[in-house]
TrEMBL record:
GO molecular function: large ribosomal subunit rRNA binding; structural constituent of ribosome
Protein family membership: Belongs to the universal ribosomal protein uL10 family.
Record keyword Ribosomal protein present: yes
NCBIfam families in UniProt: PRK00099.1-1
PROSITE patterns reported in the protein's UniProt record: RIBOSOMAL_L10 (PS01109)
Protein name as catalogued: Large ribosomal subunit protein uL10
InterPro entries linked to this entry: Ribosomal_uL10 (IPR001790), Ribosomal_uL10-like_sf (IPR043141), Ribosomal_uL10_bac (IPR022973), Ribosomal_uL10_bac_type (IPR047865), Ribosomal_uL10_CS_bac (IPR002363)
UniProt-listed SUPFAM superfamilies: Ribosomal protein L10-like
Function: Forms part of the ribosomal stalk, playing a central role in the interaction of the ribosome with GTP-bound translation factors.
A GO CC term assigned to this protein in UniProt: large ribosomal subunit
Taxonomic lineage from the root: Bacteria, Pseudomonadati, Pseudomonadota, Alphaproteobacteria, Rhodobacterales
Organism: Donghicola mangrovi
Subunit structure comment from the entry: Part of the ribosomal stalk of the 50S ribosomal subunit. The N-terminus interacts with L11 and the large rRNA to form the base of the stalk. The C-terminus forms an elongated spine to which L12 dimers bind in a sequential fashion forming a multimeric L10(L12)X complex.
One Gene Ontology term from the biological process aspect of the record: translation
Keywords: Ribonucleoprotein, Ribosomal protein, RNA-binding, rRNA-binding
Length: 171
């Protein structure tokens, strides 16, 4: 790899470290090609990515970045799993690590915060962006559905509701 290629890799890694919601660093020594392809496929399905990079180039790319503290994990045969969603890459890495003893999660970073092994596990248990959006929509939609249910109720129910409101107003 010549100097221009190395500079390009450092630039790409720098963009990954800046734009990713979470970056997980793991050792992958002993993984077969098929196992690595499985990891990449799982990551793709979760809108995450997997990248093997030279530790030296990754450390250069980390200089001056908010997540520079994760440089301590970059030794040996390391692989980066990353995603814009702050939870997706951690979930993919944790799920893959459960089924494969050769894949050892070391730590990572979430924005400016360095994550140790336990931190990555905690992030993986958080709800994803889509799950949070769905629960918020459910909270917003609940009052509207209650109103729609009251409006669609038979006339006797509406009459009962009105008389109850009238009784409370008179009291």
């Amino acid at each position: 790899m010549d100097r221009a290629q190395k500079e390009k890799v450092v630039e790409e890694l720098g963009q990954i470290f800046e734009s990713s919601g979470v970056v997980v660093v793991a050792h992958y020594e002993g993984l077969t090609v098929a196992e690595m392809q499985d990891l990449r496929a799982r990551a793709r399905a979760a809108d995450a990515s997997v990248r093997v990079a030279k530790n030296r180039l990754a450390k250069i790319a980390l200089e001056g970045k908010p997540c520079a503290s994760m440089a301590e994990y970059l030794s040996g045969m390391t692989v980066l799993t990353f995603s814009e969603d702050p939870v997706a890459a951690a979930k993919v890495a944790e799920d893959f690590a459960k089924g494969n003893d050769k894949f050892k999660i070391l730590g990572g970073a979430m924005g400016e915060n360095a994550l140790d092994r336990a931190g990555v596990e905690a992030v993986s248990k958080m709800p994803s962006r889509e799950e949070l959006i769905a629960s918020i929509v459910g909270c917003i939609a609940a009052p509207a559905s209650n109103i729609a249910g009251a409006i669609g109720a038979p006339a006797s129910n509406i009459a009962g509701i009105l008389s109850t409101i009238e009784d409370k107003a008179a009291a």
